[in-house]
Amino acid sequence: MKITINDLIRCRAFRSKNIQQIKKWLYHCKKSGILFFEENVFELTSSTPFNIYYALSPYKSSDINPFPIPIKDFTLFDDLDEDLEFMRHYFEKYYKKRVLDNRYFLFYETEPYVGIHYIWYYRATKERNDIFAASTEEV
User: Fold this and answer.
1) Adjacent-strand bridge partners of 18
2) Domain residue limits, the chain
3) CB neighbours of 10 closer than 8 A, spacing ≥ 6?
4) CA distance linking residue 12 with residue 117, whole number of Å
5) Is the pTM of this model over 0.70?
6) DSSP 16
7) Torsion angle, CA of 90/108/36/19, rounded to 10 degrees?
């Protein structure tokens, strides 16, 4: 979901908070892994849009990109095919979309974002939506 700090200020839960308090809250949520966004929250202006993702389910309006893996389930495999199959399982579970080719995950960052409760794999490239459209189908 694309939002701004100003959007959050307008929410009832944040009305009594200032920009720095909201940024600190976002930072702690990202550090825990419950939320994910690529940007450095402290460098965002109040009107800069950014994509935010929630670990328990994707927002309907979100770009399809990062996906979480609970830290307790995370595993590194010696075999690339096993790694890609593992990623595929969690991607499909999160987005409810089938990946047609495990090579789709070769475009993801090799070092995922590690939060306290969730690890997030993501693509930092802008071509991700075109690649996704060609590599997936509805379940």
Assistant:
1) none
2) 2-138
3) none
4) 27
5) yes
6) T
7) -170
